[in-house]
Design goal:
The complex is a heterodimer of chains A (357) and B (310). Chain A has 357 residues and is mostly helical. Chain A contains 14 helices and two strands, in the order βααααααααααααααβ. Chain A has a single domain, classed as ABC transporter involved in vitamin B12 uptake, BtuC, CATH 1.10.3470. Chain A has a two-stranded antiparallel ribbon. Chain B has a single domain, classed as ABC transporter involved in vitamin B12 uptake, BtuC, CATH 1.10.3470. Chain B has helices spanning 5-34, 42-60, 63-87, 92-111, 127-132, 136-140, 145-163, 165-175, 177-182, 187-213, 225-235, 240-263, 269-289, 291-297. The chains are: A mainly alpha (357), B mainly alpha (310).
């Protein structure tokens, strides 16, 4: 006889152990899928998760991909903690990229230490403004933020497409849908010769630290947490919900915008149609996997970045499509969400009692 | 360029064809949402339907099996969403996103060996009538059976939701799961059924793309149509008949783009492509300002987790 009971309190150890359980279940599920498709599962998993980071270059690539993921997820954690469902980080990333990229093109040919900081700042502001659209509509017109932020992703994508095909396309670019390569002064400094890892990682780490400070050491962080736990309590305590909603969206949008500008001034170096392989959506998985905790998000971003890298390696060695990484990303979230059931419910295995027979 | 009547008829026929996947997926999602479940996995279920339909067509050489199989595949993948959100009480938004991400990846993996294989000709009905009657011919005839079904579906859905007992139960569950449950309705069962139905319809929408509209398999071939379908449900303020109208508008925008590009219009095509999303946001703003309009059709409990203490 199995009995399911609601737990009264969530045990912290299970809270942080279930993500690890989810990762193992994902590896297991991935092995099964590879087996069904006719691959040797262990070999396939090795190509996916070990080969990509077996050398220094691979490890640097891992950090290159984890940098934007971690940054966006940290921003999202502000929204998710306070029950605001911003799922349009991809749009905010792209819009940040557009604004930052526009400024970079404006400074084309300029030298000077001030160029890059201005670009980065404008990218952050771009993302922030774009995130304020769903926030303002939610607070003042009671509009559902999930749908608005989602719709805006496609508006941003199409705007980028318009700009790189039309007015911003490289005049010497033979009509390729891309802008000029940015000047050297507009590029993130590379940390090591021959590797792609760039200074954007410091922006991410500083943001993670600041987020930890805000979330755990300030009154705003306390408000965010209380609002997430119970909206009624938050209202009873007299918190001004509207301002907080807009602030969390602004933080989250700024982080996504920073990620976007980090990508275009870092590894990419120009604007084109595909400046993000859906980092904005995948970062939602990172935020959940990291339990909305700054340290957890760092680890989670490394793991999810590995699925991107693994897909690239597997594409070469196993001739599987690059979208294979998404199978793993989807599974991680499925298993994680599913195993949350263990958090809130106790499953008791009881012997049959006499009076029940 | 001559705008004769027959050309306009062909244009309308093309708009109808391009709106079919939107109508099918949105009608399915509409039922799911009316039961209070927000499934953001439309794109994922559609693409699974597209590859399953195409793969089955190649393997069995039977279009009927392919169409049925695509619906079953859409249904099967929606079971994942059902088990997670209904039995394991997970968050609808996150689970739906995971479903879309998973579906796109999975379809690409399955479809690896089907890239580049030509599709089979899908039988079209009343082709001779299409060619012999000017204007009305290309509008009314020469379509696949799925198109006729799609144009009937919103009316059936409307009748089903408004006039049948099961429709009433679905709406009750969507508006107030707690009171429905107190009336003895099995909320979880109703929501499961609506999720599976939505999955099957999205599967069919995908199969329409890979078997009829552009008969071949291309990675990521749904190309965001699932998200447009999702927008469409909101745009239609959860009313089946408005889904039909909205799908024709959104489908019309797609066709208009192609023609305007051909004619060399100066309006950027991207602006036209963005219109469905912008219009949906405007509709969302308008309906959320007027609470009466929301109450009319919006499932009140949309996206909320229902848990019954046992």
């Amino acid at each position: 006889m199995i009995k399911i009971e609601k737990r009264n309190d969530v045990s912290p150890s299970i809270y942080f152990l279930t993500p690890i359980l989810a990762i193992f279940l994902t590896l297991f599920g991935g092995g099964i899928i590879f087996y069904v498709l006719g691959f040797n599962p262990l070999e396939a998993l090795k190509f996916f998760f070990i080969t990509p980071i077996s050398d220094l270059y691979g490890f640097s690539e891992l950090l290159v991909k984890a940098t934007p993921l971690c940054l966006i997820a940290i921003g999202l954690s502000f929204c998710f903690k306070s029950n605001n469902w911003n799922i349009g980080a991809e749009g905010q990333l792209i819009f940040g990229g557009i604004v930052g990229g526009g400024v970079a093109l404006l400074f084309y040919g300029h030298d000077g230490f001030y160029v890059l900081p201005i670009i980065i700042l404008s990218g952050a502001i771009g993302g922030m403004i774009f995130a304020m659209i769903p926030a303002v509509l939610k607070t003042y017109l009671n509009t559902n933020e999930i749908l608005v932020s989602l719709m805006l992703v496609y508006v941003a994508k199409l705007l980028l497409d318009y700009l790189v095909v039309g007015p911003w396309s490289n005049p010497e670019g033979f009509n390729f849908p891309e802008t000029r390569q940015f000047s050297e002064s507009a590029r993130m400094p590379i940390l090591f010769d021959g590797l792609r890892i760039h200074a954007g990682i410091f922006i991410t780490l500083i943001t993670v630290f600041l987020s930890w400070l805000i979330l755990y050491k300030t009154y705003l962080g306390f408000q965010i947490k209380v609002s997430g736990l119970s909206l009624k309590t938050a209202k009873y305590a007299g918190y001004k919900g509207k301002a907080m909603i807009i602030i969390v969206f602004m933080i989250s949008g700024a982080c996504a915008g920073l990620a976007g500008v980090g990508e275009i001034t870092g590894p990419i170096g120009q604007l084109h149609r595909n400046i993000s392989p859906d980092y904005g959506f995948t970062a939602i998985i990172v935020a959940f996997l990291g339990r909305l905790n700054p340290l957890g998000i760092i680890f989670a971003s490394l793991i999810v970045a590995l699925t991107y890298l693994g897909a690239e390696t597997a594409q070469i060695f196993l001739q599987v499509p690059k979208y294979t990484g998404q199978v793993f990303q989807g599974m991680i979230l499925f298993f994680l969400l599913g195993s949350d059931y263990l958090l809130f419910f106790k499953i008791k295995f009881l012997g049959l009692k006499k009076n029940e027979l | 360029m001559s705008f004769d009547l027959n050309f306009i008829g062909i244009l309308i026929g093309a708009i109808m064809a391009s709106s079919v996947p939107l109508i099918l997926a949105a009608s399915g999602e509409l039922i799911t949402e009316r039961s209070g479940v927000l499934n953001l996995g439309v794109e994922g279920m559609m693409i699974i339907g597209a590859i399953s339909g195409f793969a089955l067509m190649v393997i069995t050489d039977n279009l009927f099996l392919a169409v049925i199989g695509s619906m079953i595949s859409g249904l099967i993948i929606s079971i994942i969403f059902g088990v997670l959100t209904q039995s394991l009480l997970t968050n609808h938004v996150a689970t739906g996103l995971a479903l879309t991400i998973f579906g796109i990846g999975m379809s690409a993996m399955i479809g690896k060996n089907f890239v580049g294989i030509p599709g089979k000709e899908f039988p079209l009905l009343f082709v001779n009538l299409k060619e012999n009657i000017p204007f009305l011919g290309p509008i009314l005839f020469g379509h696949s059976v799925i198109l006729y079904f799609a144009f009937l579906l919103p009316f059936l859905t409307n009748y089903f939701l408004k006039k049948t007992k099961i429709g009433l139960i679905i709406r009750a569950v969507g508006d107030s799961p707690t009171s429905a449950s107190n009336q003895g309705i099995n909320v979880t069962l109703v929501r499961y059924s609506c999720i599976l139905y939505g999955g099957a319809m999205c599967g069919l929408a995908g199969a329409y793309l890979s078997l009829i509209y552009t008969p071949q398999w291309i990675e990521n071939m749904t190309g965001g149509r699932g998200w447009i379908a999702l927008a469409l449900v909101v745009f239609a303020t959860w009313s089946p008949i408005k889904v039909l109208i909205g799908a024709l508008i959104f489908g019309g925008i797609t066709i208009l783009q192609l023609h305007m590009q051909a004619v060399g219009f100066r309006i950027p095509v991207q602006l036209l492509s963005a219109l469905p999303y912008i219009m949906t946001i405007i509709v969302l703003v308008v309906i959320s300002r007027d609470s009466r309009k929301i109450k009319l059709n919006t499932p009140t409990s949309l996206g909320q987790i229902f848990y019954k203490e046992k």
